[in-house]
Structure formats: structure tokens, C-alpha cells
Design goal:
2% helix, mainly beta, 252 residues
Length: 252
């Protein structure tokens, strides 16, 4: 029996003829007879549950699936599972081996922020794990994201103006060669608003939405929000009393 063959399947993103595809590659054991492979593509539909979306039987050491925005969309976590067998004895199959989950879409690094009302700038990186296609007859290979902020108060209920400010309201993700799970990236800074109010720790969120997209893949996609917890800090006070005496912010 073939048992475990250490096929080590792995998923990488590719741009093939202007379309975003995922490629599952695996290694072949050297001392075996010619093998065939069954590659099952699946997506995480709910936590802990996978939904099969494509099945290939191939002699090749790779298999492709297209991200068409219908059965495979941005925001999905995708897996490929590979089983090998010989043509002479197709009933003798190896143990199925599954790739690591590949998240296709926009990622924020860090995924959440904890900052204080101290005026410091915190860098937020936005990256795309899939390559960005150029629209037909255009040379701008980019995705424009519109950014917005919202205050969720202390109990996830919107109560007033946001507790954070961003260094930009729009960012462009420009296509670059894919490396280390990033095919396009941009950075911006997040700063907590010093509001001179004792309003406790508050939660805000940053939302990013693709704008001006004709491509179905991106048009219907909304990345996951970034949660920002803002720690309240006491602010200085000055006093004036009697004839008058004035105590300044620094205590004089």
C-alpha cells in the first residue's frame, strides 16, 4: 500500500492570462511507479467546516483553480488535499494530505491595535495576498481602498466622533511580485485623538472598501474591519483662584 508519501501540498497565488488563480503544487516520491493524483479544492464555509469546490485527477504535479468571484471569492480560506494512486491499482490510494489554509484577500498587519491617547503614530500595513490584475486596455494595476473610521464606544455601540485619525483616507495597492504572502502592499499611520476628556477606554474600527472597481472579484468584496482599542490617559489641568493665583499645566 502507498500509505503516506509526504507529498507536501502548498498553495501559491498566480496571475494567468490576466486572471487570478491559485496553484496547488506537491512533490513526487522518487522510488515509486508512475502515479496519478486526485486534487480536491475546498474552502472554509464556516469555522471547522469545509466545502468542496473542485476535484481534479491529473498526472501533473500541480493543479489550478480560478478565483472567479462566484464559487471562490476574496475573503475565502482555501485548502487543497492531494491523494496519490497508481494506474495499475487505483483502489490502493495514499493517505490524503492537506495543504495549509491560504487566505485570499486583504490582510491588515497588525490585525488589531491597542493604542493610547499619547499622540504617537502607529503603522498599519495593508496587503493583498493575491495578485492584482490590470483592467483591459489600462496599465494601472492597482486597487484603491477607501478608508473610514467609526467609534464603537465602550460597548460596541456608536456614540460619537471616532477616537482615532488616519494619515490617509485612500490608499492604492500597487501590483508587485508576490513574496511572503504579499502581492501588493501599502502603509498608513493611526493616531489616537487626544480629546482632553475622561471618557474611559474606547473601541474604534477602521473599514476599507475597494472603490471604482469593474472587476467582479473586487467589486463585491469588503475586507474585515480592524479593531482599535484606545486607552484613555489623564490630561493636565490648570486652575485660577482668588487674587488670582494660577497653577499651570506643569504645576507652577
Amino acid at each position: 500500500k502507498l500509505t503516506s508519501l509526504a507529498l507536501q501540498p502548498a498553495i501559491t497565488p498566480k496571475l494567468v492570462q490576466g486572471r487570478v488563480r491559485l496553484k496547488c503544487t506537491y512533490s513526487r516520491p522518487s522510488s515509486k511507479p508512475p502515479l496519478q493524483y486526485v486534487v480536491v479544492w475546498s474552502r472554509l464555509s464556516t469555522p471547522g467546516r469545509k466545502e468542496q469546490i473542485q476535484r481534479d485527477t491529473t498526472l501533473q504535479l500541480f493543479s489550478y483553480i480560478e478565483m472567479n468571484g462566484v464559487n471562490l471569492r476574496l475573503g475565502d480560506t482555501v485548502f487543497c488535499t492531494v491523494t496519490a494512486f497508481t494506474r495499475d491499482a487505483p483502489e490502493q490510494q495514499s493517505l490524503p494530505e492537506e495543504s495549509k489554509g491560504f487566505y485570499a484577500g486583504i490582510k491588515f498587519l497588525p490585525e488589531s491595535l491597542q493604542i493610547a491617547e499619547d499622540g504617537k503614530e502607529h503603522v498599519l500595513t495593508i496587503l493583498s495576498t493575491v495578485p492584482i490584475a490590470c483592467p483591459e486596455r489600462e496599465d494601472s494595476c492597482k486597487i484603491t481602498l477607501q478608508l473610514s473610521t467609526e467609534d464603537l464606544g465602550k460597548n460596541s455601540q456608536s456614540t460619537g466622533p471616532p477616537d482615532i485619525v488616519l494619515s490617509a483616507c485612500q490608499v492604492d495597492l500597487l501590483r508587485a511580485p508576490c513574496s511572503e504572502s504579499s502581492c501588493a502592499a501599502a502603509t498608513l499611520t493611526v493616531t489616537a485623538v487626544t480629546d482632553f476628556a475622561q471618557d474611559g477606554n474606547r473601541i474604534s474600527r477602521i473599514r476599507a472598501e475597494p472603490v471604482g472597481q469593474r472587476d467582479l472579484l473586487w467589486r463585491a468584496y469588503r475586507p474585515k474591519d480592524v479593531k482599535v482599542t484606545v486607552r484613555d490617559l489623564p490630561t493636565g489641568n490648570c486652575y485660577s483662584f482668588t487674587d488670582p493665583h494660577i497653577i499651570t499645566f506643569d504645576g507652577w
